[in-house]
């Protein structure tokens, strides 16, 4: 019976993969948002909005692709995935809050800010805390070293 390469993962590596799945869910959610914006743009072109359907589609697609790429790096345990996720998730949350400040037009939208702030802080704490944990950093650097050795044919 062959063992999966995932059965030999250390707890820090499993944590990175779990964070990668979280970032993947964010990315896929944004891609879904882009698709829905295009869908509604065709059916409700005259709906009065504070932003255009095109803006929603482009930003959803951009963040979706960015976050999916970062998630792939994390799931494959690459150090570039760690750096990309830290930068990508942080910039994504900054963009979310810029949108809140500039485009929230209803009282209800403003009432959800406290909940959104808690979710933002929780996400950033999970990503920054999890990916800056010393054992995670060592595990990701170790995997990159092993890969370099396999490519060059050197053994340690």
- The average pLDDT value, as a whole number, equals 89
Residue runs with pLDDT of under 50 for 5 or more positions: 152-156
What is the chains' assembly state?
single chain
Using only CA atoms, what is the Rg?
19 Å
Structural class: mainly alpha
Domain tally: 1
- Report helical residue fraction: over 70%
Give the overall shape.
elongated
Task: Give the CA-CA distance, first to last residue.
Answer: 28 Å
Topology order in helix (H) and strand (E) letters: HHHHHH
Largest sheet features: none
State the helix count.
6
Q: How many beta strands in the DSSP annotation? A: 0
Strand content: under 5%
Provide a descriptive summary of the structure in words.
This protein has 6 helices and no strands. With 156 residues, it is mainly alpha-helical. The chain has one domain. Helix 2 packs antiparallel against helix 3 and helix 3 runs antiparallel to helix 5. The protein is elongated.
